[in-house]
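Hello, quick one for you while I still have it in my head. No rush at all, and the record is pasted right below.
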Amino acid sequence: MTMHLYETHLPVSSTERSRKFYQDIVGLEFAYRDPSRDVVFLWIGPDRRSMLGLWGPATVRGSEPYRCHFAIALPLADLLEAGKRLNDLGVSTRNFAGEETTEPSVIGWMPSAQLYFRDPDDHSLEFIAVLDETPEPGFIGTLSTWQKRNRIRSPVAKNFPVGGIEEIVFEVKDLERSIAFYQNTIGLSLHSRGPQEAWFRAGKQWLALFARERIGSGQHFAFLIPPQDAERTRCALAAQGFPEETMQQEEGLSVYVRDPDGNKIELFAKQTVP
């Protein structure tokens, strides 16, 4: 049996004030205001899979106010940005110990990273990202400490399968000279070209030549990963402290990372063309 939590409800002193907070600050989507009762509903996340109800003081669920707590799941990359964003909007964020900070804390038995904050009625909210890593039941601490402890024994490679090389991109000083070399000396067939780039087909892979003044990803090579692993790949790299760099292309999401020598690597979640 597949299950997930569909809805939760909060008693609030003002449905309009709380609607603005959850819509403008938290980022939920307005769903419906009941015209016969002082009740507002908002969607949590995409596809209408979860919902939040806000009940005013004259309603059955809002007539006796009490403090509640609930958590909203986010990708880790979004959680890492949430603290500063909320602080900039005037909302204080805290860790598991109640200390004011923008750095998520980690509860090791799950494991998960989270930040806590409060709404206008003092309800406790949590932004949480479940980590695809080995649990440590005794650990409660900062995300940075968790990452240092787990960086060596939790390699990113275990989180997604690499399916092969999609392309190799070289930056060249003279595009015309390099096109001539790869056509006439190496024997590759020119597939397409533009003012600052040229693309060759080499079997099932691509070789691209970029002029140095071309704006974009620059010299790199691309591994293929399954499309369903794109978000998990992005989160796995962020969890290990790599700067986030992504590009949404027509054929899928590209996630970039640099190796210890500074070489740029693309992990391309290429969609299958029917």
Observations:
- Residues 152-157 have pLDDT under 50 and may be disordered.
- Residues 76-88 form the longest helix (13 residues).
